[in-house]
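hey so u asked for the seq, here:
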Amino acid sequence: MSQALAELKLLRKRIQNVTKDSVFTVVKKKRDLLDAAKFSTEATASYQSYKDLLARYNAIKAAIVLSNAATKVSIAGIEYTVADAVERKKTIEMEKEMLKIMKHQFEMTKMDYERHVASENTRVERLIQTELGKESKTNVEVITQLSETFLAQNKAEIVDPLNLAKEIASLNKAIEDFETKVDWVLSESNGRTTITL
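ran it, structure tokens below
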């Protein structure tokens, strides 16, 4: 497989060169020194070369696609076909973006909750000062009752149906494990896998 991938790269370059350098038609004027027969032979040969290179490229690519769809690899304890692993390499950016959003929302929600709790504690202290004045240090029972009632009425809670802390850790680990191992596993698989043309 590794040899096939290297040949694909070489074929791609050759196809690009033939495409760029080929001349298939010209205007021949009476006084031009152009040999029309020679030009025709070269143009035909150039186009045939292109078609042969493209046919070889397509045959190798098709064999690789079939092999990738059938060959299984294990990455971080999860079994993939090579095709699935290659595709996940391309789409993992979407997972990283989701992870980034989850982390941001988790942190913002935590900060918002902590601000709310601090604000309510400050408000309850002011309420106690206003209601009890100098007695605020001595009347523990009234202070406790006032605090509990006020805080219960102004309570806030974090609604977290996904258990984001756990989900963030899990997604982060899955991404790291995959990215750490995927290239090595695919390289090893490509070295062991043979394709038939």
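The chain has a mean pLDDT of 91. Residues 86-192 form one domain.
lmk if thats what u needed
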